[in-house]
Design a protein that fits this description.
The protein is an alpha/beta fold. The protein contains 26 helices and 16 strands. It folds into three domains: 161 residues, Substrate Binding Domain Of Dnak, Chain:A, Domain 2; 151 residues, 3-Layer(aba) Sandwich (Rossmann fold), CATH 3.40.50.2030; 228 residues, 3-Layer(aba) Sandwich (Rossmann fold). Helix 25 links the parallel strand 15 and strand 16. Helix 17 crosses helix 22 and helix 19 runs parallel beside helix 26. The longest helix has 35 residues. The site of FE(4)-NI(1)-S(5) cluster has 14 residues, from helix 13, helix 20 and helix 24.
């Protein structure tokens, strides 16, 4: 199988092959794993106690129960629930990290952080129920941070961020089904409890536990987005470039990889300091210091500072293989441990920064918010030092990069629409949905995987949906894909949008002063910023006076990898959204679980999973879901 549809990625892979270097990359390591274990693929393997591992024979000839008596249904449901819990734990860790930093900033204990966006602070305070009259921004921020942190442990009441960001009808459904979380961390912990040896053995009950945890995950994502905006600013449209061609031969290149803006935003601030720039130039880097982003932290700095995006998840190793990345700085999540060995073959430094995410072979610079800039400066110095050792003969930077317009936060979208229809900004969006110029909305989210030729599913699906006048939103590595392929440009609108959609994107782009149409896909940010998509959907639902499961809104993770993607997909379904996954998670060992997630769950929440590996069939399924909803709303389909 071809590794990637991304020309730049292929140039780099071919380059190292031709040069005779031997690096097994993710794709080769995957091949070495084949055939992967079918018990695992089906979800029919359990290791939750020391009597295991237990496996169930999918053909019915061998054992049908684990040692404790767990059935296939129980095993598969427990597997799904634990994946959701792990994903939620990641988002919760990220969100708490931001909340603690906001708290420390408000107390004056983290001098490099401060309230940057007071309007967002006010808005979030309102949501969180924090009074703001006669208070300084710091005093408000302190209370908001405390409120946020209080969302994590078990409380007596449902969570402020869940209640204040979702429609009332959804909350009623959640309450009725017992899936309204009373604490983010406690919901995660509850899944671990109920899926351990000898606890919950009712598969549908376990799945409801997974849904509850997924709603907690949504809440954590929203907190992460809100508090990051307070500290670093709410994104607005910004132009940048994307793909490996943004790495510069004549500059000290530092790749920012991972997730949290706490580190990467500070890196951006420090890399602009004249003293460090002088040192880079003195070292022979006439182009100064060039920061590039990878994965979600790349999205964070792309949408707030226009930092170019180098590449995304599955191709992260190729950044180092250009031979011109002097340092790659990582925090946590989606960072392949293999980066250490790839970096070792070059002059590149892999720098870890978080106490919970060290990598053998990497250099560790402990990051503490109290001394953030100091650490960031030391990292830049280390990169300059590595630049001295770069071997120009091994540099192979593909000449591929596209311009991209990013940073469409909910606020930015409403702001752009307000220029069309001041007093009632959502009206043009609604009018165009009603008239059918916009058939519906699809949010693309999630990763790139070795199991699909990188980007292939995204590209096939987005063209098909856009041609059919579906408005496209994107986050995470989905956004990375579209940016790397030039689909986040106005030119892509001209090329791929159906006539109705094109007209809308042109009209809004003109009025919003972009000097051309809005890009074909609207970049909402990182994976936690899927919460921004929810904000938009909730506002539209409110305006239409319906719950979210009535909206012609769908979601897709065509190339998912992580447990975070499983958590996000699950909450999207719980919020009433038909959600496609292009790599089928290990659920097919249980007809009951697979059937519930792809069909039965619709009766409870309105949303459901569409598991389809063929991108064109997937696009058709999403279009059918959009049409079904349009008809139910009495709109022409
Ligand atoms: Ni989302 Fe971001 Fe990318 Fe997937 Fe990983 S970077 S949090 S999980 S791989 S989209
Ligand atoms: Fe086997 Fe049950 Fe233990 Fe799982 S929990 S390993 S099925 S005995």
């Amino acid at each position: 199988m071809e590794q990637s549809k991304d020309r730049a990625v292929m140039v780099v892979i071919d380059g190292v092959k031709k040069a005779g270097y031997r690096f097994p990359l993710a794709w080769e390591r995957y091949e070495a794993q084949l055939p992967q274990c079918s018990f695992g693929e089906l979800g029919l393997c359990c290791r939750h106690c020391l009597q295991g591992p237990c496996r169930i024979d999918p053909f019915g000839d061998g054992p049908q129960h684990g040692v404790c008596g767990a059935t296939a249904d129980v095993m598969v449901a427990r597997g799904v629930a634990r994946a959701v819990a792990a994903g939620a734990a990641s988002h919760a860790g990220h969100a708490k990290h931001v909340a603690h930093t906001l708290l420390r900033a408000a107390r004056g204990e983290a001098k490099d952080y401060f309230v940057k966006d007071t309007a967002k602070l006010q808005a979030v305070a309102r949501k969180a129920g924090v009074a703001t009259e006669d208070k300084t921004p710091e005093a408000i921020a302190l209370e908001v941070a405390e409120k946020a942190l209080a969302e994590f442990s078990e409380r007596e009441a449902p969570l402020a961020w869940t209640l204040s960001t979702l429609p009332e009808q959804r909350i009623v459904i959640f309450k009725k089904l017992g899936v309204l979380p009373y604490g983010v961390d406690s919901a995660i912990s509850e899944v671990m409890h109920r899926t351990t040896y000898g606890v919950d053995a009712e598969p549908l009950n376990i799945l409801l536990g997974a849904v509850k945890c997924a709603i907690a995950d949504y809440t954590a994502c929203h907190i992460a987005t809100d508090l990051s905006d307070i500290l670093f600013g709410t994104p607005g449209p910004v132009s940048a470039r994307a793909n490996l061609g943004v790495i510069k031969r004549d500059a000290v290149n530092i790749a920012l990889h991972g997730h949290n803006p706490l580190l990467s935003d500070i890196m951006v601030q420090v890399a602009r300091e004249p003293e460090l720039l002088d040192r880079a130039r003195a070292a022979g880097a006439s182009g100064g210091i060039n920061l590039v982003g990878i994965c979600c932290t790349g999205n964070e700095v792309l949408m707030r500072h226009g930092v170019p995006l180098a590449t995304s998840s599955v191709s992260q190793e190729t950044a180092i293989l250009t031979g011109a990345v002097d340092a790659m700085v990582v925090d946590y999540q989606c960072v392949m441990p293999s980066l250490a060995s790839v970096a070792e073959c070059y002059h590149s430094k892999l720098i870890t920064t978080m106490p919970i995410a060290k990598i053998a072979g990497a250099q560790h610079f402990q990051f503490d918010e109290a001394s953030a800039k100091e650490t960031a400066r030391r990292i830049v110095e280390a990169a300059i030092e590595a630049f001295h050792r770069r071997d120009p003969a091994r540099v192979n930077i593909p000449d591929v990069s596209y311009s991209a317009v990013a940073g469409f936060s909910a606020e930015a979208i409403v702001g752009a629409l307000a220029r069309v229809s001041g007093e009632d900004p959502l009206k043009p969006l609604l009018d165009n949905i009603v008239s059918g110029n916009i058939a519906g909305v699809c949010l693309f989210a999630g990763c790139n995987t070795v199991k699909v030729t990188q980007d292939a599913n995204y590209l096939a699906m987005v063209r098909e949906l856009a041609r059919n006048n579906v408005l496209i939103l994107c986050t995470g590595c989905a956004a990375g894909t579209f940016a790397r392929h030039g689909l986040m440009r106005p030119e892509a609108t001209e090329e791929y949008a159906g006539p109705g959609l094109k007209g809308v994107l042109e009209a809004v782009g003109e009025v919003a002063g972009l000097g051309g149409p809005l890009p074909l896909v609207l970049h909402l940010g990182s994976c936690v910023d899927n919460s921004r998509a929810v904000d938009i959907a909730v506002a539209v639902a409110g305006k239409l006076g319906v719950d979210m499961d009535k909206l012609p809104v769908v979601a897709s993770a065509p190339e998912p990898v992580t447990e975070k993607a499983v958590a996000i997909g699950t909450w999207a379904v719980a919020l009433g959204i038909p959600t496609h996954v292009g790599v089928v998670p290990p659920i097919h060992g249980s007809r009951l679980v697979a059937g519930t997630l792809t069909a039965g769950i619709k009766e409870l929440f309105g949303g459901y999973f569409i598991a389809e590996s063929d991108p064109l069939k997937a696009a058709q399924a999403l279009l059918a879901a959009i049409k079904e909803r349009r008809r139910a709303l009495g709109l022409a389909a």
